[in-house]
Design goal:
7-stranded antiparallel β-sheet; mainly beta
Length: 171
């Protein structure tokens, strides 16, 4: 199977509200979905963007060897080659990596952290069962983080889901 890009037709990230937004990526077999949920600041309404994609070929499993798989959060090292569609500036704002295959992941589980500061607080304004187990980091656009030992979270199989909550700073 090859790479598949699933773009979202949402407004630019710089115009998102300064509350956490939910980005969810799901893969079931060769079918993928990307969900973006942006909460309203004035009501209980949410703005949702959903797009689907399908991996080419006959393979239906996401076959990742945990010993050779790297999961970067917030950006990639300067010498890391990415496809042109992913060659974007580093993320600026607060990230909260909530779950990987429904297993809560704290940002303290990173193997290495590069150019990230914890000095700017990322306030949560919603309650969740994971709140006490989740950590926030502020990304200034120049750093990234590397998730630690994903093998302990189980093998990637037929269903793989990444949930990331994103908040950008207000201008």
């Amino acid at each position: 199977a090859g790479d598949v890009n699933i773009p979202l037709d949402s407004k630019p990230i710089s115009s998102w509200p300064t509350h956490f937004n939910l980005v969810k990526v799901e893969r079931i077999g060769k079918h993928g979905k990307v969900f973006l949920t942006i909460p309203s600041l004035t009501s209980t309404a949410e703005e949702k963007f959903i797009n689907k994609g399908e991996a080419p070929g006959d393979a239906s499993l996401l076959d990742l060897d945990a010993k050779n798989t790297v999961f970067y959060v917030g950006g990639v090292p300067p010498d890391f080659k990415v496809p042109p569609s992913l060659d974007l500036p580093g993320f600026i704002g607060c990230l909260e990596l909530a779950t990987l295959n429904d297993d809560v992941i704290s940002l303290y589980n990173f193997k290495n952290i590069y150019n990230i500061t914890k000095s700017i607080p990322c306030i949560r304004d919603k309650l969740a069962f994971t709140q006490s187990r989740v950590v926030n980091y502020f990304f200034d656009g120049s750093g990234y983080a590397l998730a630690k030992n994903i093998e302990s979270r189980g093998k990637f199989g037929l269903v793989t889901r990444f949930d990331i909550e994103v908040r950008t700073p207000s201008d």
